[in-house]
Amino acid sequence: MSFYNPQTTPPPVIPNFGTGSKCEVENHTFCWGWVQHHWGDTLQPALLDHLELTAIAVSIGFAIAFAAALLAYRYRRLDQPIGLVSDFLYTIPSLALFQLLVPITGLTTTTVEVALVSYTLLILYRNILDGLRGVPAEVSEAARGMGLTPLQTLFRVDLPLAAPAIVAGLRIATVSTISIATVAAFVLPKGLGYPIFTGIKQDEFKTEIIAAGGLAILLALTADALLVVVQRALTPWRRA
Amino acid sequence: MILADNFSWGTFPDAIRFIGNNPGLLWHKSLDQIELSSAALGIAIAIALPLGVVLGHYHRGSFIAISVSNIGRALPSLVLIAFGILIFGIGFWNNAAALVVLGVPPILTNAYFAVDTIDENVVEAARGMGMTDRQVLTRVELPLALSLIFGGIRIAAVFVIATATIAAIAGGGGLGDIIVNQATYRLSGVVAASLCVSFLAFAAAFVLAVTRKVLTRSFVSHD
Q1: B130 half-sphere exposure, CB direction, 13 A CA radius
Q2: Domain that holds residue A193
Q3: CATH code that applies to domain B22-220
Q4: CATH of the domain at A85
Q5: I need a labelling partner for B3 at 20 to 30 A (CA). Which of A118, A145, B138, B139 fits?
Q6: Helix or strand run (H / E) with residue B80
């Protein structure tokens, strides 16, 4: 049996079995007291870090995938090579990719972000491209016929019509990134994965594992629900 | 604990040397990981594939298929492993259970939509030719759905292998044992094990692609 070896400075020892409440000392299933007591120093910072890791990764991933999809939409023969690269990146297991980047970028946020971004690429690229290709040719033709330039056609006709597919891709990418970001704790004491690790190391301190794990799931579900709202707002014509 | 390993490109040649010096160790750990991953993937396929195909065949339960995939995606693998430790304790079955939970959603959803979205006309034509319900399913729907079904299995396989690595924190054995033990194996060992894990994932994707091709061919040449 092996446990996670911290590669960074050790965290404050939580829980303190010496002075903790009875519930904490006896490691009951869930101690509300601990959550209230450690929300400010453990859970909230982890949650905010997690949000930051996810937001940066999805933004950068979206920018890259968007550019790549536009290129592949315009130049069809680029589709296969771009698809192969993103497929390749997606196949590398997350923990392995984090560790493979460590020799290059060290135990830094960059390592984590590079890996997270590469996982969003396949999902976002495929969805954006499928969305654009799903626009009926007659519609684009009509727009061109009305005198819109290719750029106007893209931004005023093609992209709005592709919006549902694009936001669907964003939902999957965001939720997956929130999930994979928990693994980042293997290389960086950041995000909701970290309290989970700490909890496992502290003789499987249940409250901390359940609280942090629950927060991660809640964050994913909330982000998904928010993006559904965005999707509805972007496509008013769908609400008949 | 600060480790003396330097972060440099030189780690990669060191990692290759590590593979050369410890082939037995890596082989042994790889086998552990293959055992855990294939057990979990096998169970996940056995549960999700028939369910998805049958639901798709009768065009029922799109709500189930969609919710399962949404909820499945929202369950972080590390959280599942950690909850597994609390429920089952540390060991093979805790990890297998967590991996099955991760593997089911992509297989179920893809199988459902693969069968559900087959062109109505094709199915009608098959019925018109006098095929029984069972024949429609096995001779028409399954061959047409094959590529999407395998897409789902492939995603599940990559998930399962990736998470089986994380399972080392719950006594899962496998290559993750090396990856979480940098103090013992140094960064070069960790990188070597990561290379092996990546290789396993690609090998699994390759095996699935070949299986799909063989199956497609057998369907085509069947009658």
Answers
A1: 0
A2: 44-238
A3: 1.10.3720.10
A4: 1.10.3720.10
A5: A118
A6: helix B77-88
Number of domains in chain A: 1
pLDDT digits (tens, 9 = 90+) for B123-155: 889 889 888 888 888 888 888 898 889 989 998
Give A86-153 as a 3 state SS string. Answer: HHHHHHCCHHHHHHHHHHHHCCCHHHHHHHHHHHHHHHHHHHHHHHHHCCCHHHHHHHHHCCCCHHHH
pLDDT at B48: 93
The answer to whether residue A154 sits within a structural domain is yes
How many Cα atoms sit within 13 Å of A164 on the Cβ side? 10
B-proximal residues of A, 162-181, CB under 8 Å? 172, 175-176, 178-180
Q: State pLDDT tens for residues A192-210.
A: 988 888 888 777 777 888 8
* pLDDT tens by residue, B20-34: 888 888 898 899 899
CA B69 – CA A191 distance, rounded (Å): 24
Q: Does A213 contact B8 at a Cβ distance shorter than 8 Å? A: no
For residue A183, which residues of chain B lie inside 8 Å, CB to CB?
A: 76-78, 166
Decide if A25 is inside a domain: no
- Across the interface, do A97 and B8 touch by the CB < 8 Å criterion? no
In a domain, A3, yes or no: no
Name the residue among B9, B77, B83 with its Cβ closest to that of A103. Answer: B9
A182 interfaces chain B, CB cutoff of 8 Å: yes
Q: What is the pLDDT of residue A3?
A: 45
Of B82, B176, B195, the CB nearest to A200: B82
- Interface A:B, Cβ pairs < 8 A: 152
Residue of A89, A95, A107, A112 best to disrupt the B interface, most CBs of B under 10 A: A95
Let me know if residue A117 belongs to a domain. yes
Q: Is residue B221 scored above 70 in pLDDT?
A: no
